[in-house]
Design a protein that fits this description.
Layout (H helix, E strand, L loop, with lengths): L2 E9 L2 E10 L7 E2 L3 E12 L4 E6 L10 E7 L13 E8 L5 E8 L2
Parallel strand pairs: 6-8
Antiparallel strand pairs: 1-2, 2-3, 4-5, 4-7, 5-6, 7-8
The protein binds copper (II) ion (CU).
């Protein structure tokens, strides 16, 4: 059985990007096409317990996202250890299945 899902990545209620997830039958690996986005922002809250960081991020024209403050899940939780509120950061995120953005890389910038 083949499934073809179109998942809409929603950022709060603003805009969204279309992510295609192609799931083949059990004999074939699942193929996911994920676009990643590189964005600048400022750390507002670091929540190590839940592995998330709240960021005030710049607008992301590709996604029609305005500048906003929101929580992102971070793939590598150890990257949260070096972050603190007020840090200026550059980060990259992808959308996961289901639509929640997942940060794959985050670094402070001077
Ligand atoms: Cu946002």
């Amino acid at each position: 059985m083949k499934r073809f899902l179109i998942t809409t990545l929603a950022c709060l209620s603003f805009g969204g990007a279309t992510i295609f997830v192609y799931a083949n039958d059990a004999h074939h690996p699942k193929v996911e096409v994920q676009k990643s986005y590189a964005v600048k922002g400022e750390v507002v809250v670091v929540d190590k317990a839940s592995g998330k960081v709240k960021l005030k991020h710049e607008p992301i024209p590709e996604l029609n996202w305005p500048a906003m403050t929101m929580f992102f899940e971070v793939a590598d939780k150890s990257q949260l250890d070096v972050l603190k509120a007020g840090d200026q950061v550059k980060f990259e995120f992808v959308s996961k299945e289901g639509g929640a953005p997942l940060i794959t890389q985050i670094n402070t910038v001077k």
